[in-house]
Amino acid sequence: MSMLPDIPQVITTGNAQDVLGNSHLRKVLCYAKHPLSSLLFNSETLWFTNQKGAIGFFQDKNLHMCVGGILAPDEERAALLQLFLNFTREKRAFPVFLHGDESDFVLLKNNGFSVNQLGASYSLSLNGYSMTGKRFQQLRNKISKSRRAGISVREISSQEEYYRLKPQLEQINQLWLKEKHAKALKKLVIDFNTVEVNSGEHRVYIATRGEQIQAYIVYSYTWGETSGWFHNLSRKKPDIPDGTMQFINETAINDFLGEGTVSYLHLGFTPLVEFGEERNFNDSAIFHKIAKWLSSKGGIVYPAASQRQYKMSWRPSLIEPEYIAFPKGKAMKALWSTLRTTNSI
Questions:
Q1: Domains of the chain by range and CATH?
Q2: pTM to 2 decimals?
Q3: Which of 52, 72, 122, 181 places its Cα 20 to 30 Å from the Cα of 250?
């Protein structure tokens, strides 16, 4: 790729190969500090770029939902952010920032944004990780139960096999959504059509009974300071044996440990949990009040309690607050726009 001109550009990518095939974007990924930066491999990702870095975002009407943080060297991040904010003002766009590093939100706060806690993310350090001992007894019992019920787990080995099995996976998606009475989430989970097993950016593990797939988990590679695998998307048929999802994840963890090439498994973001830490940003009182109310009601927007229980069962070594940043005085617009764009409501 030739040197970028001095003036910023906006480019569009549709999958991991588009991003990794662009030498500038591949370079700036090394500045990613948040495990969910892998969401930038989704379709219809826009990148605001200059020679020093990039900010990835999704657009829905006038909402510019930025994900993954300000990807630039530390000394260039403030200037890149200022260029991006000038760009959004010229476009009369409404910028919202999610899934960035805490230092990103400090910078945004210094640029006049309100920053509030939205939930938390959970990660396992794989260095020395083991599921032995009493504290994992219940988890091991669940996994044993699924084995006794005839469940087997394996990894899809190629893109060709993925395409061959994709109709079964899509059927599971539909059954899962019907059971949950939910719409398919957008933007904040992997776009199912961008999964690329051969790229090295995705791995898909399936649970089978006989010839039929019962459940699956898609893992995405994460770049940056805590590189590893992100437990991205999991779906299952109704009434599958208890412990099946845990069996899949245990199999993947054992593979990751055996390969010894990554240090983290990121279990991902859960909204509306882990409130109460005084050190956390909560600039907008109305946003904080609504988020706490939704948290107390559980399941109105998202099954946060069950997701948290699943993630905590793996004994995560890192539990980090997740924030949202939005223009001051726009708390309700930020919350509504984000929920609408991601199909959460």
A1: 9-121+274-299+320-341 (3.40.630), 128-262 (3.40.630.30)
A2: 0.91
A3: 181
